[in-house]
Amino acid sequence: MFDLFARVFGREDASKDVAKERLRLVLVHDRASLSPQALENLKNDLLKVISEYMDIDDQGFRVDFSRHDDAMALVANIPIRKVKHHSV
């Protein structure tokens, strides 16, 4: 019965998304050799700086690392709603 309510009200999907995000963070941590707190700080700093120039969807904001041979790249998926126009 609880399973039916969970599906109807979306709790199962939310739990699945939380578990998926946790696993993703563990994988990123392993690839980058960063502590989870350092990775979270990096994400927050990137979000803060980019938000000065663009209105972004922070729920869709993702940071990952990609490794090719001896090189590692920071890959960010940043959904942009609109660019903020600043007077210079």
Care to describe what's here?
The chain is α+β, with helices and mostly antiparallel strands and 88 residues long. Helices cover 52% and strands 24% of the residues. It has one domain. A hairpin with a 2-residue loop joins strand 2 and strand 3. The mean pLDDT is 76.
Summary tags:
alpha+beta, two-stranded antiparallel ribbon, Cell division topological specificity factor
Give a short overview:
Keywords: Cell cycle, Cell division. This is Cell division topological specificity factor. Helices cover 52% and strands 24% of the residues.
Query: Order of helices and strands, N to C?
Result: HHHEEEE
Uncertain runs are: none
- Compute the number of helices: 3
Order of strands, main sheet, comes to: 1-4
The count of β-strands is 4
Largest sheet: 2 strands, antiparallel
Q: Given the C-alpha coordinates, what overall shape results? A: globular
- End-to-end Cα distance, whole Å, is 60 Å
Q: Give the class from helix and strand content and strand pairing.
A: alpha+beta
Whole-number radius of gyration?
17 Å
Number of domains: 1
Q: What is the average per-residue confidence, as pLDDT, rounded to a whole number?
A: 76
Strand content: 15-25%
Helix content: 40-55%
